[in-house]
Specification:
By secondary structure, the protein is mainly alpha-helical. The protein has one domain. It is 72% helix and 5% strand. The radius of gyration is 20 Å and the shape is globular.
């Protein structure tokens, strides 16, 4: 661990950050990640022009991420209770567990009451695919996939890097992940400029994504579900262009017994994506099941941190 914090402190701070997130939810005003998004947009508009787009993208990433991560290190460097509070607050601002629930459960509720326009509008806020003519099955699939993938991006990757490097680790991960979401597109505008941001996010996410996929396997509700989740991970993930989204979404879909992936519409064009999972098509209630899987995985990771802390503490006093 790179934090200088004890394993017990890390376990307690992980729990504190998650608890703050569940109690307070996403800050509606002055959220640091919203401000960071505006900063990143300004940097991109300034630098993403002319030649040497790869180098300009690397410079943009450095200008956006390094100073804020250094500031996080400075805040975490204070001693005593102030440093502990800084770690917990940084984790709170970086994690998005309640946000996943607040953005996805209303989609399930709108679908359950047959309010297709509301479900389409709510889904359009969390995915980039077209939703104007989406069917209930399309919307349920989109929401379920978003929950499974963002369980890693918004929750488990953040928890992992907090365990490694405290608040600064969580900040670094979330800033890098945000830049990938903003710049990591394979289109004319971002193919070269966003390459560095995409590759850094892939590297930071590599271990957390596989731990998330393994967690989804372990928490499948039956032995058959565990075997199916493992099989889907090993056979389907290589077909996905993202080295991290593939394992996470295929294992999660397999654990839930759902057939996800396949056709989706982007900018008016139907894109045939590789299959995810196996079983029935997603329905409104499966959005709730996906959220519950993410919530149980969070509990599993917090419990694992607590057990590890107890084992280390017991070992030092043996």
């Amino acid at each position: 661990m790179l934090t200088g914090l004890s394993a017990t402190a890390i376990a307690l701070l992980l729990a504190a950050g998650v608890l703050l997130d569940l109690l307070l939810g996403e800050a509606t005003r002055w959220h640091p990640l919203v401000g960071f998004g505006k900063l990143a947009g300004a940097i991109e508009r300034r630098l993403n022009r002319g030649g040497s787009r790869h180098l300009r993208g690397a410079l943009g990433w450095t200008l956006a991420v390094v100073p804020l991560t250094a500031l996080a290190c400075l805040l975490a460097g204070f001693g005593g209770l102030l440093a502990l509070a800084a770690h917990a607050v940084m984790l709170y601002f970086c994690i998005g567990l309640r946000s996943l629930r607040d953005h996805n459960v209303p989609i399930a509720e709108a679908l359950a009451r047959g309010d297709l326009p509301a479900a389409r509008l709510l889904t359009s806020r969390i995915v980039s695919r077209d939703t104007e003519h989406a069917t209930p099955a399309d919307l349920a699939k989109a929401s379920t996939e978003s929950l499974l993938e963002n369980g890693n991006d918004a929750v488990f990757g953040t928890l992992f890097w907090f365990a490694v490097a405290g608040g600064p680790g969580a900040v670094l991960f979330r800033l890098a992940n945000t830049l990938d979401a903003m710049w990591g597109y394979k289109n004319t505008r971002f193919l070269r400029f966003g390459c560095v941001a995409a590759r850094i996010d892939d590297a930071l996410n590599y271990i957390p994504a596989r731990l998330t996929a393994l967690s989804y396997v372990l928490l499948a509700p039956s032995a058959a579900g565990k075997r199916r989740a493992w099989h889907c991970w090993r056979t389907q993930a290589p077909a996905w262009s993202s080295p991290n989204a593939g394992p996470v979404m295929s294992s999660g879909a397999g654990a839930l017994g759902l057939a996800l992936g396949g056709a989706a519409t982007y900018d008016g064009e139907i894109e045939q994506r590789p299959p995810l999972g196996a079983g029935q098509a997603a329905r409104a209630e499966d959005i709730i099941r996906a959220w519950q899987l993410v919530a149980r995985t969070t509990a599993l990771w917090l419990a694992a941190a607590a057990v590890l802390a107890l084992a280390i503490h017991g070992g030092t006093h043996a």
